[in-house]
Input
Amino acid sequence: MQKPTLYFVTHNAGKFREAQALFREYFNLEQIDMTYPELQEDDLSKIAAYGARYCSVELDRPVIVEDSGLFIDALNGFPGPYSAYVQKTIGNKGILKLMEGVSARRAEFRSVVAYCAPGEEPTVFTGIWWGDLLTEEVGTGGFGYDPIFSYRRFPVGEMTVEQKNEVSHRRRALLEFRQWYENKLNAVR
Output
């Protein structure tokens, strides 16, 4: 039986690699590098659902999109849904500057994967990964905020894709989606 093909709309090659590693045995995954309007909203679920609906209509095929953010307790959840913009403007060094002298360094990554097929409502899947912010950048692995985040005192910037895929927020959301999608496909067969 031929594996179904899923279309992951993302500019981010790192996100695509992580998803591809988790789906390899189940689905063919193709990256679509497409720009779509991003809903300005504080809720990642609403942002991802809006993007998935838009892309499924524009491309006339089922798609997944993923939106994620870093939520820092000491900064009242900042940068949250604005993480990509903050990463582009002040980067990891700017976040570390904001956290200078702050001892409470708990933070979490949140990932929301949204699936939508033309004519359907989006379905969303959420994953959360708790950890702490480091006081300096460590490692060259991963992307984005990975070099300033630690999980159980292990710097994420030093993790391989495989190690990160064992514990990350994206893994949790993607696995929830994968299970749901497999059930959806089996119900049709």
The CA atoms of residues 6 and 165 lie 19 Å apart. The chain has a mean pLDDT of 93. Residues 5-188 form a domain with the Maf protein fold (CATH 3.90.950.10). The first helix runs from residue 13 to 23.
